Structure prediction request, 104 residues.
Amino acid sequence: MAWIILFIAGLLEVGWAVGLKASHGFSKPWIALATVVAMLASFVLLGLAVRTIPLGTGYAVWTGIGALGTVIMGMLLFGEPVTSWRLLFLGLIIVGILGLKLSG
Prediction:
C-alpha cells in the first residue's frame, strides 16, 4: 500500500509542478489554489509512504516520478522539445525508479 501512496504522491508532484507554470506566477487564483492543494497533498502522502518505505528510496522515487511526469507534461502541454537525448535520460530515470523499487 505504501508504494501506491508514494506513486499517487509523485503524480500530485507532477500536478503541482505543472500548476506552477499554468498559474503564471500565481496570478490565476483558482489554478494557484489547486497547485497549493496538490503540493500539500503530495507532501502528506510522501510522509505517509516513508513510514514504511526507506526515506532515501521513497524520496528518490517521489522526485523521479515528479521529474519524469513533469518533463513529459512539459512536452505535451507546453511544447517543450522532444529530443533523442531527453528521451534517453527519461528512460534512465525510469530505470533508476525501478531499480530502487526492486532493491528496496
